[in-house]
Amino acid sequence: MIEELGQWTIRNVNDLGRFSRFGAASFAAILRTLWLPRTYPLIFTQMNAIGVQSVPVVMATGAFVGMILAIQAYGQLASMGLEERLGVLINIAVVKELGPVLAAVMLAGRVGGALTAELGTMNVTEQISAVQSMGTNPIRYLVAPRVIACLLLTPFLIIFADLLGILGGWAVSVFQLRINAGAYWNYSAIGVEMWDISTGILKGFFFGGAIALISCYKGFTCREGAQGVGEACTEAFVGCFISILFLNYVFAVVLDAIYKTFWPLRPLL
Amino acid sequence: MSPKTIQPQDGILVVQNLYKTYDQRVVLNHLSLAIEKGKTTVVIGPSGCGKTVFMKHLIVLERPTDGQVYFQGRRIDDLDERELAQIRTHFGFCFQGSALFDSLTVYENIIFPIEQHVRVIDYKQLSELVKHKLAMVGMDGYQNQYPASLSGGQKKRVALARAIALNPEVILYDEPTTGLDPIMSDIINELILKLQKELKVTSMVVTHDMKSAYKIADRIIMLHKGRIIADGGPDHIRTHPNDIVQQFIHGKVGEAELAALRLGGTRFETQFLPEDFK
Asked: For residue A239, how many other CB atoms are within 10 A of its CB?
């Protein structure tokens, strides 16, 4: 029992160490890649695969989140006669938490799974060794463009999710639940601050980085065979999901502290 | 040849006391070897004897647990990845499964190593070069195909064309004829000989195909349990006194293995029919 616990700890510490080295190597590779304009086409290809093609699913996620929030919250607020405040509730929830987190989870499934499966298969069929054998750093060629694309585009995807979430909530509230549109937007405008929207988008930057790094790492360290690739994909998704939730918690704590300290000083600036 | 007598300058590629373990399992056990420039050296041995691992050490795709690797007299096993990248441009590596990039066409696969190391300005000239390289392996005209649409033998030939893209001094072949029909195997053997003759490269081939080994080798080395047990020209290997070598080159199973198979049980004891479970 103690032996097993010890082995488990050693294995996980080792894994964390390897992941940190992989992260550091990726960071160095990203800086080099950004420095060399001839590698930009690789980034654009990944941006298309990772970002552009994810727009429909992310928009659908956002829209349903907004619509469901409207339906679920209406009863509670209506019983207190506060249904016109539905807008502020939906919009704060969407732009601050649900939009970024659910869009990131959707990306972890769509993009993370694809990245791990692609790189894992390349690893198993020795294509990564082939890149290396031809004198090219596989992290620079394969990982850096994917991480850069994910880092840059996740915030934009979150904007799409937020937008559709807001529109979905508005459509259900106004057309289905018959709430006065003027009051709905008015309360929303008072309740939602620029801070809420911008921090939600800022989170996307980190979520995107975490998704790409974890997925690429799992692909690079994937075990042989179809089972190996399958396991790597599962581990990548679980890893991404947990990291998103953990990062979100960290952000909640840190951003709250920053907000309480600096936001009241805003009128002085 | 005693291991201690081998010096870094003895060949284009030299390994000294190469030792490699995976989870305390010894794969390479203090190998020392010098590979002569311009010759074809074939490494034979049963599956799992460490042949491929040995070859990967030569371009430091694997780092040794102990021992040294030298290329042109310079120690390379302790270099960092950036320096190794430069060294690796002197090598062409043909992987067992071809390892062509399946998201790229044949043309893009071949220009890959060139684009990585040379700033290409004249793409017309590059396309002529690709045509020439593909013609050398008899694959001109396949430029726009994807690897998925090629047969096993065609993939190996494209992989060969990619390996010679940077005009390497050394070409390493990992089981080039495995999984191919006898005629395609012979075509690959002929190609190895042709490249050797025309490009004057040093070749190193890992295989367990004896027909291929006899045909292409200037020197054959047999690995067994991570050690060299035979080393010499094809004729020397044919008449080698060691029983393990003789068993391997004639493809005969040893008495000990046969006895183990017999102990495994008769058909009656080991083979069940579906009705036995009803």
From this structure: 21
Tally of domains within chain A:
1
Please report which residue ranges of B69-120 form alpha helices under DSSP H: 81-88, 106-117
> At how many degrees (to 10) do helices B106-117 and B123-136 cross?
120
What six digits make up the tokens of A186?
A: 């008015």
Q: Is A92 inside any structural domain?
A: yes
Alpha helices, DSSP H only, in chain A? 2-35, 40-50, 55-79, 86-92, 99-107, 113-124, 127-133, 138, 144-171, 181-191, 194-220, 225-262
**Radius of gyration in angstroms for the set of CA atoms belonging to chain A, rounded to a whole number:** 22
Residue type, A225: G
Contact assignment for B59 to A133 by CB distance below 8 Å? yes
Extents of the domains making up chain B: 97-167
| pLDDT tens digit sequence for B237-250 | 999 898 888 888 88
**Whether A135 and B117 lie within 8 Å, measured CB to CB:** yes
B93:A127 CB<8 A: no
State the count of interchain CB pairs (< 8 A) between A and B.
54
Q: Is residue A267 part of a domain?
A: no
Residues from chain B contacting residue A126 (CB–CB below 8 Å): 95-97, 99
One-letter amino acid of B256: A
Range of the domain at A6: 2-260
- A224: DSSP letter: S
Instruction: Enter the pTM of the model.
Output: 0.86
Is residue A151 a part of any domain in this protein?
Answer: yes
d(CA A163, CA A103): 12
* Of B82, B86, B93, Cβ closest to residue A133: B93
A116-140: average pLDDT: 92
**Residue where the block lists tokens 């090629």:** B150
All residues of chain A having their beta carbon less than 8 Å from the beta carbon of residue B162 are: 134
> Is the confidence at residue B1, as pLDDT, over 50?
no
Instruction: Provide ipTM, 2 decimals.
Output: 0.85
pLDDT confidence of residue A231: 93
Instruction: Flag whether A102 is in a domain.
Output: yes
SS3 B136: helix
What's the pLDDT band for B3 if we cut at 50, 70, 90? very low
Mean pLDDT of A58-87: 90
What mean pLDDT, rounded, does chain A reach?
91
Q: Which helix (H) or strand (E) holds B263?
A: helix B255-263
Residue B163 host element (H or E): helix B152-163
Residues facing residue B43 across a β-bridge: B206, B221
Strands B66-71 and B13-22: antiparallel
b/e burial code for range B16-55 (CB count within 10 A of at least 16 → b): bbbebeeeeeebbbbbbbbbeeebbbbbbbeeebbbbbbb
Give A211→chain B minimum CA distance, Å.
Answer: 22
Average pLDDT, chain B: 87
Residue B146, chain A, CB below 8 Å: the answer is: no
Q: Do residue B99 and residue A134 have CB atoms under 8 angstroms apart? A: no
**What is the model's pLDDT at position A249?**
94
